[in-house]
Amino acid sequence: MVLILSTLFRILDNDLFVLCIFMAKICNAGFIIQTLMKHRFC
Question: Which domain of life is it from (predicted)?
Answer without folding.
Answer: Eukaryota
